[in-house]
Amino acid sequence: MRPGPIVAQALEIAVALAAAPLFLGWVNQCRAWLANRGAPSMLLPYRNIRKLFHKDAVLAENASPLFRIAPYIVFGTMVVAAGIIPSLAGRLPLVVAADAIALVGLFATARVFLSLAAMDVGTAFGTLGARREMMIGFLAEPALLMVIFVASLISATTALPAISAHLASERFTIDPSLAFIGVAFTLVLLAENARIPIDNPATHLELTMIHEAMLLEYSARHLALMEWASALRLFNYACIGFALFVPWGIAARDIGPFGLTLSIPVLALKLAAAGGGLAVIETVSAKLRIMRAPEFLASAFLFAVLGLLVHVLLGGA
Amino acid sequence: MIASLSSPLPDCLALVTAWLAIGIAGLARPRSVRYAGRTLFVVGALVALALAATAVWSLIGGATQSMVLPIGLPDLPFHLRLDPLSSAFLLLLGAAAAGVSLFSAGYFRDSDGMAPGLLCLQYHVFLASMGLVLLANDAYAYMVGWELMALSSYFLVTTQHRIAEIRAAGFIYLLMAHVGALAILLAFGILQGGSWQFTFDAMRAAHLSPAWAAGAFLLALAGFGAKAGLVPLHVWLPEAHPAAPSPVSALLSGVMLKTAVYGMLRVAFDLLGHPVWWWGLVPLAAGLLTALYGVVFAAVQTDMKRLLAYSSIENVGLLFTGLGLAIVFYGTSMPALAALALLATLYHSLNHAAMKSLLFLGTGSVLHATGQRNLGRLGGLIHRMPWVAGLTLVGTLALAGLPPLNGFVSEWLLLQSFLFADQIPRAFVDLLIPLGAAVVALCAALAGYVMVKFYGVIFLGQPRESSLAHAHDCSLLERVGLGWLAALCLALGLAPAQVVSALTPVTRQLTGSATAQGASWWLLAPVPARAVSYAPLLFLLAGAAVVALTVLLVRLFYHRRVRHARPWDCGFGEVSPRMQDTAEGFGQPIRNIFQSFFAIERELPTPFDAAPRYRIAIHDRIWLGIYQPIAGWVRRLADVVAGLQQGRIAAYLLYSFATLVLLLAVVLAT
User: Fold this and answer.
1) B378 and B453, same structural domain?
2) Within this chain, do residues B462 and B531 fall inside the same structural domain, yes or no?
3) When comparing pLDDT for B115 and B47, which is higher?
4) At B154, which helix (H) or strand (E)?
5) Which of A53, A104, A119, A302 to mutate to test the interface with B (most CBs of B within 10 A)?
6) Which ipTM did the prediction report?
7) Cα–chain center distance at A138
8) Host domain of residue A299
9) CB atoms within 10 A of CB B202
10) Nearest C-alpha of chain B: how many angstroms from A31?
11) pLDDT digits (tens, 9 = 90+) for A15-52
C-alpha cells in the first residue's frame, strides 16, 4: 500500500481530534452572542480538557475496572468513527472496515459503554442518566439507521464515501426524500448530542439532565476523555450531515496534498455554518420535558420512514 | 480414521448414539454427582465437540449422503441423510452443546430436585433427539425424534417438579408442543401428495397443486412456529424456558428453537422445492411482529431468565423475518438475494445459539451464587464474580448487536438484504417490505436497551441485598463452558468471511445461488455489485490501537494518580443501594412508550398508607385475549361432558338403551 492514503487517514483523524473541541467552542460562542451575553473564548474547551488532564483522578470506592476502561473505549470508538466518516476525503483505508450501518453500530457501542459505566457506581443519578440515555438511544438509533437506509437506497450502497460521492455527482437529480431525512437527521443530531431541546449541555440541575448525569462520577483524565469524546461525537454527526446533505468539497478521488488542502477550508466553512445553525436552533427552542422526548424522537423516526416511502414511491414509478 | 472422515454420516450417527449411551450409563450410579455429573457430562461435551468437527468437515465437503437404518416398525425403517443444511445445524448443535455440557458438569448438584443420573439421561436423550431430528430423512424418523425432543425436554423443564408453577409451565409447554407436532404431522400428510410414501425423497418428488402446497406451508409454519415461539404461539416460551435449570434453558433457547428454523427451511426450500413468493410474506410479517413483541416484553421483565426468554422470542422473530424475506426473493426469481437473506438467517441461528446459551449459563451461575432470579435483589456482582461478569459481558454486547461481535454481523446481513427489497417486482410489496427494515432497526436498538438493563442491574452498581456479599464465583468447569461460548461469540464476530464461506454450500443447496466472497480473507463483502464491506478485524484493530495509544499517551504526558472516595451523593448524605434504578424503574420508559402492548395491573398506595406498597404486574394481552377464552371454552365443554358422568349404573344403562334405540331408528330409516 502506498503511504499516501495512510497519511491522509492520519490527517483526517488528527483534524477531527483538533477541530472537535474548537467546533464545540464555536457553538458555545454563537449561543452566547445570540443570547446577548459576553462570549467565552472559542478555546475554552481545550483549556478545560488540559486542566482536567492535570488533575488527580477521584474514583468511587466501589468502581469496577469497567468504570475505568469505559472512557478510553468511548473515546476510541469516537476516534475510529472520525476515521470512517468522509470529512476530508473518501476512499481512505479505514473505509472498507465499516459502512454506514457499522458506523451506527459504533455509536451504539459508545452509548452502551457510557451507560454501563454510569450504572457501575450505583448512584441514583447515574442509573437515571443511563436509563434516559438508553431511552433516547433506542429511538434515535433506528431513526439514524433509517436516514442512512434511505440514502443507501438512493445511491445503491451503504459505504458512506460512495453515498457521498453519488449525492455530489452532477448526474444525481434531487430526490425529495432527502428533505424528509434531512429533518429527521437534524432531530437525531440534537438528541444524540445532548443538545436543547432534549438535554441541556449547560445545566447542572440533576433532575433534568441526561448526559451530564452519567458523567457525575467521572473526574480528571477520565472526564477529560469523556468530554473530548462528546465533542468528537458532535463533530462526527456534523460530518455525517455534510457527507449526506452538503457533499461538495470532499476530496473523492484525489487524496493527494492538493485535494486535502482544498477540503480543509471547505470543511471549516461548513462547520462554521453548521455551528451557527445549531446555536440558532438551541436559542429559539425550549427544553422539552423528558416525557416529551419520545414524541420528539418518534417524529424523527417517522420523518425518516416517510422519506423511505417517498423514495420508494417515486423511485418505483 | 481417514476412511471414516470421508463418510461423515455414519460418524454423526455414531456420535448421536454415543449421547444415548452416555445417558443410559448415567443410570448406573444415579445418585453420584461425581460420576453422573462431573464425568459423564464432560464425555458428552467431547462427543459434542466431535460432532461439531464432523459437521464442519461435512459442510466443507458439501456432499450429501443418505442411508437406511433397519430399526423401528416393520416396513418403516429410519431414513437418514446428511446434507449441507443438516450439517450446518448439527454444527450449531455440537458447538453449543459442548459449552453447555462442560458448564453442566460443574453446575448440577444433588439438590436440584432430580437425581443427577436421571438428569444425565434426560439431558443426553434430549441432545440425541435433536441430532435425530436433524438427520432424519423421512417423516416417521423425524416425528419420532421430534416427540422424543418434546418429551425429554418436558422432563428437563420440570426438574424441580415440587414447585407448582414449574409443573404448570411444563404442562403448557407439553400442550403447545403437541399442538405444534399435530400441525407438522398434517403438513407431512399433505406433502406426501397421494403417494403414501413418507420418506422425504418421495415428498421432494411429489407434485402438489398450488392450494395444497400453500396449505402444507402454512401448516408447517404453524407447527414450527409453535416450537419456535412465533407470536401468537409464543405463550409457553417465557414460562417454560425460565422454569428449567439454566443449562437446560440454554439448550432450549440456544439450540431447540433452531430445530424449528431448520424444519421450516427444510419444508419450504427442500421438500416443497419451489416456494411461491407470497408465502414468504406470512413468516416475514409474523417474524417482525414477534421480534418487536419479544423485545418490548423483554425490556419490562423483572426476572432475569424471563428477560432472556423474551429476548429469545425477539431473535426467533428476526430469524423468521430473514426466512420470509428469502422466500419472497426466491419466489420472485432473485436467487442471489434469497441466498443473502438465507445467509443472514443461518448466521443469526449460529450467533444466537452461542450468545443466548452463554447468557443463560451466566444466569445459572448467578442463581447458584445468590439464589436470586429477581433483578430487584441483585446488583454489584462484578466485584464478587469477576469471571462470570467478564464472560457474560461478551454475550451481553453480542446480543445487543454491537460491532465487532457476532450479533452485529447477522444484523448487518439482514439489513443489507432489506436494502434490496425495493427491487421486488411486485406492486405494494416493494413498498411495504422496506418498512420492515425500520422494525428491524427498532428491535436492534431496543435489544441494546434490554441488554444494558440485564447487565447493569445484575452485575453493576451496588448490591441491593446484604446477602449478595457472600456470592462466590463459579467453578472451573463452569468457567470453561462459559469461556468456550464466549470464544465462539468472538470467533463468529471476527471471522465473518470464513463463516460465510462455510455456510455457502447450504445457500447453494437451498437456493441454487451463493453470496460472493470478499476480495480478502478479512473482508466481508457479500454483494459484489455494491461497494459494501465490513471488516471486523480491521475495525477491532483500529479501535484497540486507538485505545492503547490513548492509555499510553495519557500515562506518558500526565500522571496516573488516583484517589478513592465515596460516590458523590449530591449533598444528600444518605444514599443507599435502594436508590438505584430497579428493574421496574429501568423498564419504565418502555412501559410508557409501548403502553398498548401490555395489560398493566397497578397497585398504588394512597397518601395515608402506613405501610405503602407499590406493585405493578404486566400481563400479556394475547394470553388474556386468546388463550384464556379458549381455556374457558374447553372447561365449559368439559363441564357439559362431566354432567353426563353420573357415576350410577342405572344412568349408564339408560345411555346404552337410548343409543340402541337411536341406532335402530337410523337403520330402519335407511
Assistant:
1) yes
2) yes
3) B47
4) helix B139-157
5) A119
6) 0.92
7) 16
8) 3-316
9) 18
10) 28
11) 899 999 999 999 989 989 998 888 888 899 999 999 98
Contact yes or no for A96 and B542 at CB 8 A: no
Q: What are the percentages of helix, strand and coil residues in chain A, rounded to 5?
A: 75, 0, 25
Domain of B647? 594-605+613-669
Full-model pTM: 0.92
Closest chain B CA to residue A292: B593
3-state secondary structure B414-428: HHHHHCCHHHCCCCC
User: What gap in Å lies between CA B41 and CA B35, rounded to an integer?
Assistant: 9
Residue B367, burial from CB neighbour count under 10 angstroms (0-12, 13-18, 19+): middle
CA-angle at B190, arms to B187 and B193, nearest 5°: 145
Enumerate the residues of chain A whose CB falls inside 8 A of the CB of residue B588: 131
- Chain B segment 334-393 residues within 8 A of A by beta carbon are 379-380, 382-383, 393
Confidence at A207, pLDDT banded by 50, 70, 90: low
**If you search the block for the grid coordinates 470506592, which residue do you land on?**
A61
Which residues touch B615 (CB under 8 Å, ≥6 apart)? B602, B603
> CB distance from B188 to chain A under 8 Å?
no
State the number of CA atoms in the 13 A half-sphere of A275 facing the CB. 24
B538/B649 same-domain check: no
Q: What is the pLDDT of residues A212-249, one digit of tens each?
A: 888 888 888 899 999 999 999 999 999 999 988 888 87
Number of domains in chain A: 1
Q: Chain A contact for B291, CB < 8 A? A: no
pLDDT tens-digit profile of B360-399? Answer: 999 999 988 888 888 888 888 888 889 999 999 999 999 9
Closest CA to B451 of B249, B293, B242, B311: B311
